[in-house]
Amino acid sequence: MSYGKLIEYAEAPPEAQAVMDDIKAKRGVPDVNNAWKAMARHPAVMRRFWERAQAVMQPGALDARTKELIYLAVSVANGCHYCSASHAALAGKKGATEPELAEMVEIVGLALEGNSYATFYGQPVDDALKE
Amino acid sequence: MSYGKLIEYAEAPPEAQAVMDDIKAKRGVPDVNNAWKAMARHPAVMRRFWERAQAVMQPGALDARTKELIYLAVSVANGCHYCSASHAALAGKKGATEPELAEMVEIVGLALEGNSYATFYGQPVDDALKE
Amino acid sequence: MSYGKLIEYAEAPPEAQAVMDDIKAKRGVPDVNNAWKAMARHPAVMRRFWERAQAVMQPGALDARTKELIYLAVSVANGCHYCSASHAALAGKKGATEPELAEMVEIVGLALEGNSYATFYGQPVDDALKE
Amino acid sequence: MSYGKLIEYAEAPPEAQAVMDDIKAKRGVPDVNNAWKAMARHPAVMRRFWERAQAVMQPGALDARTKELIYLAVSVANGCHYCSASHAALAGKKGATEPELAEMVEIVGLALEGNSYATFYGQPVDDALKE
Amino acid sequence: MSYGKLIEYAEAPPEAQAVMDDIKAKRGVPDVNNAWKAMARHPAVMRRFWERAQAVMQPGALDARTKELIYLAVSVANGCHYCSASHAALAGKKGATEPELAEMVEIVGLALEGNSYATFYGQPVDDALKE
Amino acid sequence: MSYGKLIEYAEAPPEAQAVMDDIKAKRGVPDVNNAWKAMARHPAVMRRFWERAQAVMQPGALDARTKELIYLAVSVANGCHYCSASHAALAGKKGATEPELAEMVEIVGLALEGNSYATFYGQPVDDALKE
């Protein structure tokens, strides 16, 4: 089993090609990112993730740009550089600016610092937060 | 050394009382959250975190509500319930709505799922993302 | 101190060579993975980890294939691509199939999503789960 | 906004009651776990997670018991005690035994230890793992 | 299967009692912490962890106090409050002071912030760090 | 937006050059690490992190070497290889030895294993740890 290999459109199974076609059409790009070429080895997982991603990331109570900033911040906090780089690009396409990304990444560090204090000091949840 | 104990204002050292006074004044609350009462055992750390939190979370390129949603999403992804509960309350005070929080938490799960695929399939970063 | 360097058998200290010999003999491979060549700088740590890995991963109540799937899932959830790639290969040698790996990685994403909801909503553990 | 509160069936919105009814019927239990009562504040998220959980966890290439062991191991590695306790119970219902759970948790610790060495030593992925 | 339950000495299986006796004798305490009472349901895992913990944490190139500070910092970064609280107490017994713990927890937050920048900016490892 | 790119001194904005000058002067190095060249795209974040890092990492109750070992251990536990490699080098400059680093990394693995047991068994915090 090999995991570094990217599966290009021509060699991808039909179910994966259908997802690639849909991504290219909806994002208006000539080719899909490496993430999708790697997932093409498991077309059903790839299809379900693409469908779920569209449903969750579509504009709703939160706009598309804010949703990408949240996805990006979680990916940074979780240590995934690929995810961070690809969603920073998506955030940019959806209107996020450089100064916004710079603020976002500093908030990630602040939150992780704050989380550490909560773990160390271990205070109980305030009653007012439970009502 | 004991970590469950909350230090109330009356018993807190002066440096911690000064931070508590500032928090109560700026947030317009009668008392500070348990997180601050627990941190009061280490007043210098408490003061630095409070000052840094204000600097990072103040409205800038991103508005205060969006910043809280990002802080909250990172705390959820990082498994800190206290942080999640307290910043959900702050997000609400800064204008976040229930439907927005519901979308936020679902994005966290989607991002962690996507991060897992990136770790498993291990695709290299696209050249286009490096330019 | 340098960490990228791989220590080949010929240049490895005797204690590390002994571990490499044992790995090659027990796995029936001509050479050890890079993970072991990197750990060879600290032979005692390398030896202890190899001995512990054998003890924990040997067939017991759980068979070797299931144990590798668990090790692999944890590595994916924890963001370690090297660990994921090397244990996916080991899982394959122990009988795991492509469809099984595809299901495993989707479960990792589902679990991380579910964990996020537990952190956000913060429900107490059910009494029935404590009895 | 309050997060500790559990929403019982009688007070849950219709969409959440429908999910609770389905969980009770399919699991053959008189009531749902606290996790679902907490999620009931966001019925659409609750419904989507329940539907996705059923699809991913149903027997496929991997049997239901193995899938639960994987979900459980990820939850333990990710630090979610609620998730660990609830899925240990589910694993038991699906046939996992105490000795299997004891082996599972020890594998989690071994994997996290191994992941740490990979992060520290930073060896590149072996070519043989990329082919 | 129930996980909240603590197994007291009198009801513990002989293999677990032997570990409890050893912990009480070596630490000079009248009873073991809850962590050990919970692990007593799986005596073999409990014994192996106790033996490994003693081997890894004994004074070596690093003294016992420094080792506890490292164990503690990792537990804080990893979000484990029980581990943090119990190892803060052990660190104190081994000579760590309040000001040292205050500095330790602030370093954890700084490191997690720095890690976030490395994930976001994704710089390659410097050649000088590989030599 | 591109994240792989390193910004060399000559092309860096003045605020970033000032930080680079300060790092080179205080560390006595001819050039800064890639981490700083990547952060130079966001000079204000870079400056704040450099100032905070100096304040937190300066000798205090804990000496500089111990502080680096803690930062390093957290980075290893958190899966950041770049951070681990760069702080292992800093630890070495501040007096940490190879045997000390070998013990540090084994403690990280032990702590993560111990944290897993705490998550799985879920024992409550001992009263003695709360007093």
Structure, described:
Six copies of one chain form a homohexamer. Chain A is mainly alpha-helical. Chain A folds into two domains: about 60 residues, AhpD-like (Up-down Bundle), CATH 1.20.1290; about 60 residues, AhpD-like, CATH 1.20.1290. Chain A contains six helices and no strands.
Q: Which helices and strands, and how do they pair?
A:
The structure is a homohexamer of 131-residue chains.
Chain A: H1 14-27, H2 34-39, H3 43-57, H4 64-77, H5 81-93, H6 98-121
Helix pairs in contact in A: 1-3, 4-5, 4-6
Low-confidence regions of chain A: none
Tell me the CATH architecture of the largest domain in chain A. Up-down Bundle
**Which series of helices and strands of chain A comes N to C?**
HHHHHH
Count of helical segments of chain A?
Answer: 6
Strand content of chain A: under 5%
CATH first level of the largest domain in chain A:
Mainly Alpha
Shape of chain A: elongated
Rg result of chain A: 18 Å
Class by SSE composition of chain A: mainly alpha
- Number of DSSP E strands of chain A: 0
What oligomeric state do these chains adopt? homohexamer
| Helix content class of chain A | 55-70%
Mean pLDDT of chain A: 95
Task: Name the CATH homologous superfamily of the largest domain in chain A.
Answer: AhpD-like
Q: State the largest interface.
A: A-B, 64 and 64 residues
First-last Cα distance of chain A: 52 Å
